[in-house]
What we know:
Elements: H1 3-57, H2 65-99, H3 105-163, H4 170-191
Amino acid sequence: xxxxxxxxxxxxxxxxxxxxxxxxxxxxxxxxxxxxxxxxxxxxxxxxxxxxxxxxxxxxxxxxxxxxxxxxxxxxxxxxxxxxxxxxxxxxxxxxxxxxxxxxxxxxxxxxxxxxxxxxxxxxxxxxxxxxxxxxxxxxxxxxxxxxxxxxxxxxxxxxxxxxxxxxxxxxxxxxxxxxxxxxxxxxxxxxxx
Length: 194
């Protein structure tokens, strides 16, 4: 066999190996992109679904005191769920950034719009979570304060009655009844509205 022929076959083998390596690398890259695309789709569905669920849990069935108590009890679990969602959302954005350079124009637009929609919904749920948390905490605090005020008033009237040996003048008795009626009606008006 001539040196030229051996040289040609050798070059041909080197080119063949380069081509095989190039194709293998490209296949691995495409496989990686496909895996990232699947991951992005899964994260998108999970993130948007969990945001909807969170939003549903933040809606009070009515504005009653009991609804606020239930909401106040649920807030820590909702915050923990929101933090988990936040991590999933961050991974989704990172995967999107990795996919963008390899996407054509239409796919790039779709990816960015999905991330933008999730981000807007995320901001909305965060705002509702903060607002609802504060509102329920304020209602509970106000009820406790109001209840404490009524107890103090009853105690004060009891002390007055005791200091004059159990007998209150007629107008004091009427005042006590009036304060009690006003207190109950205010309590109902502010904290048991449906």
